[in-house]
Amino acid sequence: MERAMVVGVDGSQESMAAAGWAAEEAERRGLPVRLLHAWMWQPVDVPVAQDPDGRRRAAEGLLQLAEKDLGDRYPAVRFTAEAVSETAVPALLRAAERSEMLVLGSRGYGALMGYLLGSCGQQVIGAATRPVVAVRARTEAPVRREVVVGQQGGAQLSGTVLKFAFEAAAARDATVRAVRAWTLPPVFAAGAASLQLVDEAGGLEPYEKEALEEALAPWRARYPEVPVVEQVETGSPGQVLLEAAEGAELLVVGRRARRAPIGSRIGSVAHACLHHAHCPVAVVPHG
User: Are 101 and 181 in the same domain?
Assistant: First the structure.
């Protein structure tokens, strides 16, 4: 069954930028785009006229305008649009289940825009089982045809993240820049004697490079046409990735599937990238 690119649309500049990005990506991949607007009419105990039918018509009109604008700009892409009477988070999560990816507008340096105010955007990204791409309205023009991807842990853990990055790079004839950031273990945890043995063996960096090479090996073999740049660097993973992604077309980060005491967590690295990256950011749940 063909999966569509799903976009949350609410009429904001951010959501329309997300819809444009999704249309371009769908054109590259030969996929359809589904525009989704979620709205919920709730009666209020105030002496004013309430018009749920008017809300529905406004939602449908918004989608019709968006679909026409995108259809004129991307005639090769098939668009469908749907307004659902439901709150945004469950509607988007359900749509994401059947999608190639979910695309949302992002303000940057703050919460996601539109009807995804406050913690809603984080709830969607933290709970989605499919990749979610956040797109800012004023994304800087890329200066390097690169897809930057953060690789952590072993090859099995990062497989879904690398798969997404290589697919995106292949679709746009771009290079994959695979980044693995690492830090020295604290002396009180590893012990001075352990650190001395590691230093005598040549340091930790060779182990980190080997781990990155091992994780990349199956994807290099599957996508031999995609150039790969390996980058192993000491420092905070979030900061290293943000610096590596300057001027890139897309930044791809992973997210562990874990629950917080209240809601879902997206992790500190994904959180930093979503709020500070100048390019679109794809958050991919680990398989």
Answer: no
Residue 33 counted as domain residue: yes
E strands in 31-183: 33-39, 79-85, 99-106, 132-136, 146-150, 175-182
12, 39, 21: which is closest to 111 by C-alpha?
Answer: 12
Q: What are phi and psi of 77, to 5 degrees?
A: -100, 135
* 244 in Cβ contact with 276 (< 8 Å): no
In angstroms, the CA 56 to CA 47 distance is: 21
Residue 161 belongs to a domain: yes
Nearest C-alpha neighbor of 167 from the set 5, 1, 42, 45:
5
Distance, CA of 161 to CA of 250 (rounded, Å): 13
Choose the final residue of a domain: 81, 110, 136: 136
CB 125 within 8 A of CB 96: no
Query: Is 141 within a domain?
Result: no
By residue range, what is the domain housing residue 228?
146-285
**pLDDT per residue as tens digits for the range 22-60:** 999 999 999 999 999 987 644 444 444 456 677 788 888
DSSP 3-state of 64: helix
Residues 195 and 90 in one domain: no
User: Do β-strands 146-150 and 250-255 pair in parallel, antiparallel, or remain unpaired?
Assistant: parallel
**Cα dihedral 247, 165, 139, 122 sign:** negative
Say what the pTM is: 0.86
Total number of domains constituting the chain: 2
Contacts of 95 (CB under 8 A, 6+ apart): 6, 34, 36, 102
Count, residues in the chain: 287
